[in-house]
């Protein structure tokens, strides 16, 4: 049987090849998607942030695939994003998912409604985990 969410892994790979600036594009879309988001990134070093988010997305895919080690990273992110950390409002997480879907739609020329459904499942699982501690 093919690895679960292999289509998402491949879609992410195609998107990164087609657009090496994919993660920068994501942040442009995400930051403009809600007025509360831009100020959160006012001191952010984006050269660093794009790298860590790329890793974060690989972790999200691995977590959805059931790799136990991925959960350790998500636990750290739940703390940094949660009430005792940056205190990200839980209502903002849907903008994160929608911005990522929009970004991938632009760059993956083989994107289909089925792949979108799988991407949304993957991203939702990570958001559910990270936002469990959110206000
Ligand atoms: C509403 C959604 C989210 C917002 C507003 C948000 C915001 C932020 C902010 C402001 C930072 C710190 C940037 C800096 O150092 O200046 C950050 C870091 C980070 N975010 Fe998010 N984030 C969101 C969701 C997520 C999700 C779902 C992931 C899942 C992969 C993620 C992964 C990361 C990683 C890997 C870092 C770097 C490590 C850390 O600072 O903990 N973020 N995020």
Task: Kindly describe this structure.
The chain is mainly alpha-helical and 135 residues long. It has one domain (6-133): Globins (Globin-like, Orthogonal Bundle). Helix 3 packs across helix 4 (70-81). 66% of the residues lie in helices and 0% in strands. The chain has helices spanning 6-18, 22-32, 46-65, 70-81, 93-107, 113-130. The longest helix is centred in the middle third of the chain and has 20 residues, at 46-65. The radius of gyration is 14 Å and the shape is globular. The protein has six helices and no strands. 22% of the residues are buried. Protoporphyrin IX containing FE is lined by residues 37, 40-41, 43-44, 49, 52-53, 56, 60, 77, 80-81, 86, 88, 92-93, 96, 126-127, 130.
């Amino acid at each position: 049987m093919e690895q679960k969410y292999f289509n998402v892994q491949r879609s992410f790979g195609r998107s990164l090849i087609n657009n090496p600036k994919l993660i920068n594009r994501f942040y442009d879309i995400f930051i403009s998607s809600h007025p509360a988001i831009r100020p959160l990134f006012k001191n952010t070093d984006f050269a660093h942030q794009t790298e860590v988010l790329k890793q974060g997305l690989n972790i999200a895919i691995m977590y959805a695939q059931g790799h136990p080690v991925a959960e350790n990273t998500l636990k750290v992110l739940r703390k940094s994003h949660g009430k005792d950390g940056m205190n990200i409002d839980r209502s903002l997480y849907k903008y994160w998912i929608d911005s990522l879907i929009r970004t991938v739609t632009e760059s993956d020329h083989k994107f289909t409604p089925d792949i979108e459904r799988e991407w949304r499942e993957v991203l939702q699982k990570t958001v559910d985990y990270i936002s469990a501690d959110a206000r």
